[in-house]
């Protein structure tokens, strides 16, 4: 809390007189102490009582002391320490729908919108003394400073060289060393706190590079000595129940971690390379209840059309786009909306990425003959109302899905195509008859993901570039502590939604070429991916550069 605010509040609320204030200010100059300290030392008024009055004035709860129970290092690591210090805040507790934040000044209440945007929770504040807040931030800062670089001293003895009579025993030994355990845990925790989807651990001739994929973009996190590679690799393989001694062949594995009262599935992939094994950790957020059509980026006419698809009790809804375009998120958002007690929902996935309460989910396993097509045939005997097939990859799966739709089921699935009309072309290339497509498909949703501008620091601009592309205005990225200087925070979908009406069905039956089919869909009111992207530029959600990166 600023000295000036405390002084003014104390005088205006008759805690001290103006004469006493001058005496205290004189004492401050002599001792170089804070107003809070000299007020306490002189005994003119109890500092706790002063803070209590401030809390009552602003409708806040007052915490006289911050015990270790309130200093949650893991929770506070989700924001840069500079941001915490700059705004004089401390994250105290995270509940199901609320986040409690300690502040030492009413001015800090201004960050409420930023925090609610970052954590997607209702923020409530508690007032704490400035001295208590500073001590807590100092403890957190000291914990933050023990980063990967600080751990290197504990790992100097590890080496890639040398022969061992029992290699398995040696690798198990280094994988269980406390510094390595802390190092791997720290990497995963940091990736989760920075909303990373993947951790890349890459060996090169003289170094081990570590990068996180955040909002679809790889960012360099750490460059470490090469001699850490074997220890880190062994630790991850041990967690993922992989063959710790196999270095010549690619391996896949998985493990679970519970962090900050949330469970995470970590999928592991190793790949032998010239300088050692490259490792990628895919972080899946476990059981989620956050999926909603409101958060996908669907809006306006596109949202209305998708909602009309969801009212269908039979037919096929297809979602298309390249890998990493957000298809799975959209699928789960639709499933979440359709998940009602009077419906039975079953999914076939490769693999199950997110667990959803009330939905039967199963993994395909081609090694034992459990393919999408065979699983789908078995599911039909389970009396489902709605079926989600992770991906249509071949004619057998496509025909089985269409047959399920024609016999009274709503089927959701994905395809890899560049736009919505191309889904029709792709199914025909697989060998599906045009009449089956036209009679079974309800609609197609094509999508991409673009990074969203940070609401805290984005700057409105008007450029000729916008006008040239049909956008009258927009914003540009700036960079601040909240977005870690990137200018972007999160991602949003850009969509193209094709509704199968009678005109579209006739065009499919007449087997128009891809270009004529696309033009006909635009004539029927389909909003193109580019148009939806530019709409989001005009709204200040993203930038032209982001839109044209993915379209």
User: Radius of gyration in whole Å, from Cα?
Assistant: 29 Å
- Oligomeric form of this entry? single chain
Q: Widest sheet: strand order?
A: 13-12-14-15-11-16-19
Tell me the CATH architecture of the largest domain: 3-Layer(aba) Sandwich
Q: What does it look like?
A:
The protein has 551 residues and is α/β, with parallel strands linked by helices. The protein has 3 domains: 3-144, Type II secretion system, protein E, N-terminal domain (GMP Synthetase, Chain A, domain 3, 2-Layer Sandwich), CATH 3.30.300; 148-285, Beta-Lactamase; 293-447 and 494-526, Rossmann fold, CATH 3.40.50.300. The chain is 39% helix and 24% strand. It has 23 helices and 19 strands. A 7-stranded mixed beta sheet has the order 13-12-14-15-11-16-19, with helices on both faces. Strands 7-6-5-10-9-8 form a 6-stranded antiparallel beta sheet, with helices on one face. A 4-stranded mixed beta sheet has the order 1-4-3-2. The chain is globular. Residues 159-165 have low confidence and may be disordered.
């Amino acid at each position: 809390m600023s000295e000036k605010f405390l002084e003014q509040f104390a005088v205006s609320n008759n805690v001290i007189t103006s004469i006493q204030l001058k005496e205290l200010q004189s004492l401050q100059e002599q001792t170089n102490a804070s107003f809070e300290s000299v007020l306490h030392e002189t005994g003119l008024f109890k500092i706790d009582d002063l803070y209590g009055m401030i809390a009552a004035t602003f409708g806040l709860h007052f915490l006289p002391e911050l015990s270790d129970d309130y200093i949650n290092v893991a929770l506070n690591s989700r924001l840069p320490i500079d941001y915490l210090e700059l705004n004089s805040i401390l994250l105290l507790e995270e509940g199901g729908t609320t986040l409690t934040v300690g502040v030492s000044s009413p001015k800090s209440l201004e960050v409420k919108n930023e925090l609610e945007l970052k954590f997607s929770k209702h923020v409530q504040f508690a007032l704490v003394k400035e001295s208590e807040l500073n001590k807590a931030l100092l403890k957190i800062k000291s914990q933050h400073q023990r980063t990967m670089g600080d751990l290197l001293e504990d790992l100097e003895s590890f080496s890639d060289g040398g022969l061992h009579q029992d290699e398995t025993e040696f690798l198990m030994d280094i994988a269980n060393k406390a510094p390595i355990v802390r190092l791997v845990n720290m990497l995963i925790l940091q990736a989760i706190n920075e909303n990373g989807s993947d951790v890349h651990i890459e060996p090169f001739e003289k170094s081990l590079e570590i990068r996180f994929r955040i909002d679809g973009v790889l960012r360099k996190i750490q460059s470490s000595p090469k001699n850490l590679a074997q220890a880190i690799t062994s630790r991850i393989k041990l967690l993922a129940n992989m063959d710790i001694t196999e270095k010549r062949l690619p391996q896949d594995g998985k493990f679970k971690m519970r962090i900050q009262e949330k469970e995470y599935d970590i999928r592991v992939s190793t790949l032998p390379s010239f300088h050692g094994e490259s490792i990628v950790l895919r972080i899946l957020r476990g059981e989620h209840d956050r999926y909603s059509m409101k958060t996908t980026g669907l809006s306006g006419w596109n949202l209305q059309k998708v909602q009309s698809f969801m009212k269908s009790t039979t037919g096929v809804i297809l979602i298309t786009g390249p890998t990493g375009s957000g298809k799975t998120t959209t699928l789960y958002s639709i499933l979440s909306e359709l998940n009602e007690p009077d419906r039975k929902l079953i999914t076939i996935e490769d693999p199950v990425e997110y667990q959803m309460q009330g939905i039967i989910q199963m993994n395909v396993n081609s090694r034992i003959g459990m393919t999408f097509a065979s699983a789908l045939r078995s599911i039909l005997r389970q009396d489902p109302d709605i079926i989600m097939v992770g991906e249509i990859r071949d004619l057998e799966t496509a025909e089985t899905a269409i047959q399920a739709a024609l016999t009274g089921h709503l089927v959701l699935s994905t395809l890899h195509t560049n736009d919505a009309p191309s889904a029709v072309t792709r199914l025909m290339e697989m060998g599906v008859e045009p009449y089956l497509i036209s009679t079974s498909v309800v609609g197609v949703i094509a999508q991409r993901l673009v990074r969203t501008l940070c609401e805290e620091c984005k700057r409105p601009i008007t450029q000729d570039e916008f006008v040239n592309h049909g956008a009258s205005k927009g914003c540009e990225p700036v960079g601040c502590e909240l977005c870690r200087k990137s200018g972007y925070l999160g991602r949003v979908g850009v969509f193209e939604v094709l509704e199968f009406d009678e005109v579209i069905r006739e065009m499919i039956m007449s087997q128009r070429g891809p270009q004529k089919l696309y033009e006909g869909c635009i004539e029927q009111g389909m909003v193109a991916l580019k148009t939806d992207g530019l709409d989001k530029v005009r709204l200040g959600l993203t930038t032209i550069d982001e839109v044209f990166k993915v379209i």
